[in-house]
Design goal:
By secondary structure, this protein is of the alpha/beta class. It has helices at 15-31, 72-87; strands spanning 3-9, 41-47, 59-67, 94-102. Helix content is 27%, strand content 26%. The longest helix is centred in the first third of the chain and has 17 residues, at 15-31.
Length: 121
């Protein structure tokens, strides 16, 4: 935990540039001190057809999904850190960040690499 899902206009980045975004987002989430580095998951999803304010305008939207229990101040700080991690990397693209809480009771996970089924984080 958390899951950072990056949705972006596909013409905005690829290859090494996109990998640098993902690394920067992982580092920002890790620096928050809210999660162990090994629990942070970052994924990118390109979007080929989009409109921003009725225009074809580059964008990046990051949804940060995490288990409930963090304070509003912690969630706000995380949102700002994620935003800052991308600001100098995406040129003139619009950036939005949304932190969404998941209900702990309904979250399940299995990680065969760590040998645990679920741990609070």
């Amino acid at each position: 935990m958390p899951h950072l899902r990056v949705e972006y206009s596909q013409d905005l980045a690829s290859g090494p540039e996109l990998a640098a975004w993902l690394d920067a987002l992982h580092a920002a989430a890790c620096a928050s001190g809210l999660f162990p580095a090994s629990h942070i998951k970052v994924r990118a999803h390109p979007v080929s057809q989009y409109r921003v304010g009725g225009e074809v305008r580059p964008f990046v939207h990051v949804e940060v999904r995490l288990k409930s229990g963090r304070s509003l101040a912690q969630r706000q700080a995380l949102s700002e850190a994620v935003l800052r991690a991308l600001q100098n990397r995406v040129g003139e693209a619009m950036i939005t960040v949304e932190v969404t809480e998941m209900e702990v009771a309904s979250y399940a996970r299995h990680d065969p690499r760590s040998g645990d089924r679920d741990r609070p984080d």
